[in-house]
Design brief:
By secondary structure, this protein is an alpha+beta fold. The protein is built from 6 helices and 12 strands. α3 packs antiparallel against α5 (181-200) and α3 (92-109) packs across α6. The longest helix has 20 residues, at 181-200. 38% of the residues are buried.
Length: 265
């Protein structure tokens, strides 16, 4: 059997989770795992359903951007969640997803990642993974979320996109070795399940503190461009609602908010 190919039975083997990955759909090629998730949500999919694809023809990123990764080289998954948490805590779904990616990579490769607020996972100032969250119409007043995660795993340097605002990398490039994608995926699902349980248990501040501690440039100076205006200041904190607090040179504070969740009618 080709070791580069993901196999559902191998992913499920010894996977001990309460929510995430209890049911797995594995595809060779799809337009996007987010598209499949939307279809499954329409059919009242169970919470924790994890959709995995070896290749996407129209992978989705934030702000309508495309996420591309060569076939059999990355991890492209979408997880369906129904947390039933207060609306002002919804941003923490992004936080637990980011923490889970960082923890899984560190556990397997002993490589330290950071989070470029709010949704990019970085190694040595280069993007290795991204997160996209979509929220769908509520069922019995509980909205359903699809959490899309893309990780550059065994992508070669020449296969990475060029001329991007943020340079890209892959785990294989940073580790100097080929990565077992099945092992990484199982660690990711296990870690995501652990942090999702914290979210279900209302451990909001614990999650926010961990997310903040992983953020690139936390307690450091940075420049943020909002439309046509640039703001220079200190990354002081993340608010309880998930916004970034920028402390400006005149000691004033600027609250930076980004649209991390795409609303569907």
């Amino acid at each position: 059997m080709n070791k580069n190919i993901l196999v559902k039975e191998e992913i499920k083997s010894a996977l001990n989770t309460k929510f995430i990955g209890n049911d797995i759909m594995l595809f060779d090629t799809v337009s996007s795992t987010m598209d499949i998730a939307q279809q499954e949500i329409f059919n009242n999919a169970k919470e924790g359903l994890t959709i995995v694809a070896e290749h996407q023809t129209a992978g989705k990123g934030r702000r309508g951007k495309e996420w591309f990764c060569p076939k059999h080289k990355g991890l492209m998954i979408t997880v369906i969640l129904k947390p039933g948490i207060p609306q002002e805590k919804v941003h923490l779904i992004m936080a637990v997803s980011a923490i889970a990616i960082v923890d899984a990579i560190k556990h397997l490769l002993h490589i330290q990642c950071t989070v470029k607020w709010p949704n990019d996972i970085m190694i040595n100032s280069k993007k290795v993974a991204g997160i996209l969250i979509e929220v769908h119409g509520s069922y019995k007043h509980i909205p359903t979320f699809s959490v899309g995660i893309g990780i550059n795993v065994n992508t070669k340097r020449e296969e990475l996109p060029e001329n991007t605002i943020i340079p890209s990398t892959s785990l294989a490039i940073e580790a100097g070795e080929t990565i077992n994608r099945t092992t990484l995926l199982k660690l990711l699902l296990q870690s995501m399940d652990t942090w999702y349980i914290f979210l279900q248990d209302n451990q909001y501040e614990y999650i926010r503190e961990r997310w903040r501690s992983l953020c690139l440039a936390y307690n450091q100076r940075l420049t943020i461009k909002d439309k046509d205006i640039s703001y220079n200041g200190m990354f002081a904190d993340i608010t309880p609602s998930g916004d970034l607090i920028l402390e400006l040179e005149n000691n004033a504070q600027k609250i930076i908010s980004k649209e991390d969740i795409v609303l569907f009618p």
